[in-house]
Amino acid sequence: MGEQVIDASVAIKWLVKNEPFRHKARQLLNDATIKGTTLIGPPLLEYEVESNLQRRLQLGRAAIAATDASLQAFYTVGVQIFAHPNMVRRA
Predict the structure, then answer these.
(1) Domains with residue ranges and CATH for the chain
(2) CA separation for the pair 37, 43 (Å, rounded)
(3) pLDDT of 72-88, one tens digit each?
(4) Helix (H) or strand (E) holding 23
(5) Of the candidates 42, 8, 44, 45, which has an alpha carbon nearest to the alpha carbon of residue 25?
(6) pLDDT band at 91 (very low <50, low <70, confident <90, very high)
(7) If you ran DSSP here, which 8-state letter would residue 85 be given?
(8) How are strands ordered across the β-sheet holding 80-81?
(9) Which helix (H) or strand (E) is 28 found in, with range?
(10) pTM of the prediction?
């Protein structure tokens, strides 16, 4: 078991058909699942994925149902968000 860092461009490829290199991104996800690799994302990953999907919706390149399904799929993957020590809020 190890760790693999991903960013929004990889996550979008998991979710959106016809993305370039989608097969490679999905293979990374499949391999991580099989090997028990922990997927880690940067602090803004969720916002970046949501923003990208929302933009596709606004441009008419995706339907509401497909966008909702993509978001649900993203959250079921279980990417752990990495919070850098310097970015932790202090009371």
Answers:
(1) 3-87 (3.40.50.1010)
(2) 19
(3) 999 999 999 987 666 55
(4) helix 22-35
(5) 8
(6) very low
(7) G
(8) 3-5, 38-41, 80-81
(9) helix 22-35
(10) 0.84
- Residue 56 pLDDT: 95
pLDDT tens column, 22-62? 999 999 999 999 999 999 999 999 999 999 999 999 999 99
CB-side neighbour CA atoms (13 Å) of 36: 1
**Token pair belonging to 48:** 């970046």
Element containing residue 58 per DSSP (H, E): helix 45-58
40 sits in which H/E element:
strand 38-41
- Tokens representing 23 are 């097969």
Q: Indicate the SS3 state at residue 5.
A: strand
- Compute the residue count for the chain: 91
